[in-house]
Design goal:
Layout (H helix, E strand, L loop, with lengths): L13 H11 L5 E3 L5 E5 L2 E5 L10 E5 L2 E4 L5 H11 L4 H5 L1 E4 L10 E4 L27 H11 L6 H9 L58 E4 L14 E5 L18 E5 L7 E3 L2 E2 L1 H7 L1
Parallel strand pairs: 8-11
Antiparallel strand pairs: 1-2, 2-5, 3-4, 5-12, 6-7, 8-9, 9-10
The chain binds calcium ion (2 copies).
């Protein structure tokens, strides 16, 4: 459980004090943010992150300043509002291609599909974003996600911020307990990618909030889309930031036979300018900037 000292936060805003008291009571304040984001307020405090058996993410206590983090992955509708306001061109749109993996393909296989971009996440023959408004935005690169965050007045969560909010006080590997439950998150069901058994009800992305939230009210921290974060795990080399970005929580594509990073500990590393049908993000905010934006 996070160690939080409210008496040392009395000089912060009333909102943060309220959030701190609510956190002590076992609940976390949720407030409306920009562009229809609902945000969980995480007060400043000490938190245990990592795991004893994870060299990239060893168990340790981190001290974090207060932050706000979205309860859901950023949706196609939210990303569309950003594009409408800024006429932003994503990396996949600029390159004319994005990577897609379809049921029936071999494990680990991805096709570079012409015309796959956030408006057509599975390619031009698949559903358009208008048909997937409440699904997480995909086919966006880490750079595209950062551009969205800047427009909205926020930023990507750090690896530690993401993990603290995703764990919501638990020491288990999953928000619901120590063992994986295929009915609790959108991952790949089945031994291989040749066939999906549809145990969780979805082959590709699911609308956000299709599965129960964690204890602090965050949805889809496991599965649906991998979520870009700022910073890299400790085995990164100098200069890696220029071409790599970290991602957390796994995705609809992830299976126990392939990328099994659909848990609260593992940290994925992706091409910073790569665009795939299983990568998205969740926005975070600094509370002071959030208050100034009102
Ligand atoms: Ca699934
Ligand atoms: Ca996710």
């Amino acid at each position: 459980m996070a160690k939080i000292d409210c008496m040392h936060r009395l000089t912060t805003s009333a909102l943060l004090l309220l959030a701190c008291l609510q956190a002590q009571a076992g609940t976390h304040a949720i407030q409306a943010g920009p562009n229809n984001h609902l945000l969980v307020i995480v007060p400043a405090g000490d938190h245990v992150v990592g795991s004893r058996d994870a060299p990239r993410n060893p168990e340790r206590t981190v001290t974090l300043a207060a932050y706000a983090i979205a309860t859901t992955e950023t949706t196609n509708a939210q990303f569309a509002a950003f594009v409408a306001a800024t006429h932003y061109i994503s990396d996949a749109e600029r390159l004319g291609t994005g990577k897609v993996s379809f049921e029936g393909m071999a494990d680990w296989d991805w096709d570079q599909i012409k015309g796959a971009d956030w408006r057509h996440p599975m390619g031009p023959n698949g559903q358009s974003w208008e048909e997937l408004k409440d699904h997480p935005v995909t086919q966006i690169s880490g750079a595209d996600a950062e551009a969205y965050c800047q427009w909205a007045g926020g930023r990507l969560p750090t690896l530690d911020e993401w993990e603290v909010a995703a764990r919501a006080g638990t020491k288990n590997k999953y928000p619901w307990g120590p063992k994986f439950d295929p009915k609790m998150a959108n991952t790949w069901n089945g031994d291989t990618h040749h066939h999906n058994t549809r145990e969780d009800g979805f082959v590709y992305t699911a609308p956000v909030k299709s599965f129960p939230p964690n204890a602090w009210g965050l949805y889809d921290v496991i599965g649906n889309v991998f979520e870009y974060c700022s910073g890299l795990p400790r085995d990164a080399r100098p200069g890696d930031e220029a071409h790599l970005i970290a991602g957390r929580g796994g995705s609809w594509w992830c299976s126990f036979g392939t990328c099994h990073f659909f848990n609260l500990v593992d940290i994925g590393r992706m091409d910073r300018h790569g665009s795939l049908a299983n990568q998205g993000f969740r926005i975070a905010f600094d509370p002071a900037r959030l208050a100034a934006k009102k």
